[in-house]
Amino acid sequence: MIDLRPVGYIIGMLTSVLGLTMLIPAAVDWGYGSAHWMIFVETATLTVSAGLVLAIASRDGLRRTLSIQQSFVLTTAVWLTLPLFGALPFMIGVPHLGLTDAYFEAMSGLTTTGTTAIEHLDDLPPGVNLWRGILQWLGGLGIIIVAMIFLPVMKVGGMQFFRSEGFDTLGKILPRAMDISSALIRIYVGLTIACVVVYMAVGMTGFDAVMHALTTLSTGGFSNYDASFATYKGAPEYASSIFMALAAMPFIRFAQLMSGNVTPLWRDPQVRAFLRWMGYAIAVIVIYRMIRHEAAFWPTLREVTFNVVSTFTGTGFASEDVTQWGHLAFTILIIAGLIGGCTSSTACSVKVFRYLILFEAIKVQIQRLYSPHRLLRVHYDDAPVEDSIVNSVVAFFSLFILTYGVLIIALTFTGLETETAMTAAWTSIANIGPAWGPEITANGSVAKFPDSAKWLMSAAMCIGRLELMSVLVLFLPRFWRA
Amino acid sequence: MIDLRPVGYIIGMLTSVLGLTMLIPAAVDWGYGSAHWMIFVETATLTVSAGLVLAIASRDGLRRTLSIQQSFVLTTAVWLTLPLFGALPFMIGVPHLGLTDAYFEAMSGLTTTGTTAIEHLDDLPPGVNLWRGILQWLGGLGIIIVAMIFLPVMKVGGMQFFRSEGFDTLGKILPRAMDISSALIRIYVGLTIACVVVYMAVGMTGFDAVMHALTTLSTGGFSNYDASFATYKGAPEYASSIFMALAAMPFIRFAQLMSGNVTPLWRDPQVRAFLRWMGYAIAVIVIYRMIRHEAAFWPTLREVTFNVVSTFTGTGFASEDVTQWGHLAFTILIIAGLIGGCTSSTACSVKVFRYLILFEAIKVQIQRLYSPHRLLRVHYDDAPVEDSIVNSVVAFFSLFILTYGVLIIALTFTGLETETAMTAAWTSIANIGPAWGPEITANGSVAKFPDSAKWLMSAAMCIGRLELMSVLVLFLPRFWRA
Ligand SMILES: [K+]
Ligand SMILES: [K+]
């Protein structure tokens, strides 16, 4: 039987940290003179206490190593447990949500999805909106660490391709993990601060700059405005596009860049394909809108760039009603969301790396048809890729599409219209944010969805964020017996 | 350089045969006293002559064996050339279509897709409707032979799994192929005659029974009525369901059944899964309609059975406006179309066999996550499956989904609405038949689509029908150099 105490200990500590961060919105609400600050002190007390109790109860589990099995339980358990506590401020304080909506909002935050269950954001106490931003920022930070440290060892969806040499034995995970994690955290914090400064330079208020920087670098997409990014048309759209794109690039490349080496970033096939594909999408939609709606070039370029980058990176900010851009533009945006950013970033969805491997794998399959006796291998970055990685990637893609299909059916079962079910499934499995359909409220929230649909979406956000397989493995009875 | 003469010879002979079959609608129109019979005699003369000229010009290519390379060229060339001649009656005679529409109609026939480009079917000369049925019946016959003889040798999409022992060397293809082909043709003809008899027994006129039997056994779905199968509600729906289901089962099992062995059919995992999944879909939709629309059980069961079997098998007959059945029913039907029937039948789409392998492959990938050192293999029918077949199947599924996505974008480019583009892409890549959207006419035809959309759909029908890879391989420059 698996020893759950190390898992309990880590979750306990993370919960306590989450509780402590609740003091930030408490301070902000207090600074803004809102009595709502007491709510955050109360939930902080509850959360820190619960976390400490769990950590102390599992203190025997304090060790330096985690088995693969424990790593699987840990990642999913973190993303199931923390939203429970992250939801407390939404339930006890304004907006006084029920458990379903509050858990949905916190899960949407920690998975960096960005779909909201709240109908009126403009009137919320500032601390509550900031808390939504903090949840996304923490979720983004967590996902970078999971993608860099855990997924490669867990061999989920071909991520073993990104295993650094130091990770070869499990016993070494944690010490080495500390070095890498601290480098990644410095980059993440640095980019966030740079984003705040730039946002303020292009005209945002200090609060809005912080709020949106938190949800930009995490490719989360929460906003404190019902109008989302339409509140800040113009230069902020370009500024945001740059930071969203950075947030969707492999963070390890930034670490190499900081040590003076620009080549790895520039030569990375994922980065090149990601920028190229975004460029194509922007070019096609700009030309299409100029021809179809006789739109002027410069504003069109700005709006299209922002909304394409926002969808491609899975951030999900909106500055325009993209459904008004015509069917071609909308279809391209939907497909862009099913691609996503680069691995080892805060971006979600299938990711560019997997498509590059997938295209190569299909090409090799077709080539094998007429030269069955030649040894044909999948190549990436001019080097052959192990079969086990290729199989893992292709199986991941198939599983992603099948899960997407099943989710559409399941959401339709709850009574949603086809369009709503299709975009809600898209937004939750790929952690994007917006959805469209008659059940979506004016501010783009899912407040009017049936509860069953909200729970399904919460589960899908968690499964999608953790790369599907690492969650689904827990459903195999043999996993628990091993 | 590849020797195209054997390909030219076979295509010439097949074209001549196609020309000869045009004498059947000629005889029928003559029998009905329609002067239109002369059109068919004219196109028959043209087609037979062109075929003979091609065959004589390529007579040096007359041999007993085909290389793999030649097999690839042959299959695609057959499905590109025959529609050119099959289209002649639609252009020269009533309904006097242009090249785009006529080629579309013939391609839709020979690929057993069943989408029509003709706006009024009820008023056509009987011979023209019969010709549409004959095109589908010949297309279905062709596909069974391709699926049984060519695809396994060509190793397309994992079809090498169905390679019988006699096929191991290419030189043996043709002689052994003759035996198998003649058995399959006898079964196909026998089932068609049985279907005619049953259709007449449940109330169809002789002509309608023949017309619909031709398009039932081919899972084609053309009808001579604008109302499609709604003309024959009641018992004919059950009769048709049975024959559509039979047409979507592996024909080789029927051959074994005829030699007195029922076990292979009954034990075939594909057949069992196919019937089980259809049963689930029918049960869910019946219950859903009874609850939602307070529908009566027996008529609901009949309508749902017919329309589910029609979509699952990719036949595409309609007896009801299924968009009125609610979102859940519609979504299930769309997914059913993306599954399809069994391999080595006239059914299209991804097919049950590939889903069974795909589910197993994903399961093995997930199992490998926690027991990386155990040897885990994909099993089918209790036997391990070679890795090359599994990879081929998973790559096929990925390619199918990607092609579907690209096709939706391309169709949107031509100006179609999103709903139309999505269902038109679905219907053409999976050879189903119906599509929905504002550009679809009252009788379900694509007559009002832009020409570019019709050509895209024609190409997609051909690519989908020939299992994608066998066509796409021709686009690799190295294929022609090999
Ligand atoms: K997002
Ligand atoms: K069909």
UniProtKB/TrEMBL annotation, chains A, B:
Topologically, how does it sit relative to the membrane?
Multi-pass membrane protein
Span-the-membrane segments of this chain are 7-28, 34-59, 71-92, 134-154, 183-202, 238-254, 274-291, 328-353, 393-413, 455-476
One Gene Ontology cellular component annotation held by this UniProt entry: plasma membrane
Main location group: membrane
Residues that bind K(+): T112, T113, G220, T315, N431
Give one Pfam family, short name only: TrkH
The record's annotation in InterPro entries points to:
Cat_transpt (IPR003445), TrkH (IPR004772)
Location in the cell reads: Cell inner membrane; Cell membrane
User: Coiled-coil intervals in this record?
Assistant: none
MF term (GO), any: potassium:chloride symporter activity
Q: Which domain of life is it from?
A: Bacteria
Provide the alphabetized UniProt keywords: Cell inner membrane, Cell membrane, Ion transport, Membrane, Metal-binding, Potassium, Potassium transport, Transmembrane, Transmembrane helix, Transport
Give the similarity note: Belongs to the TrkH potassium transport family.
Say what the protein does: Low-affinity potassium transport system. Interacts with Trk system potassium uptake protein TrkA.
UniProt name for this protein = Trk system potassium uptake protein
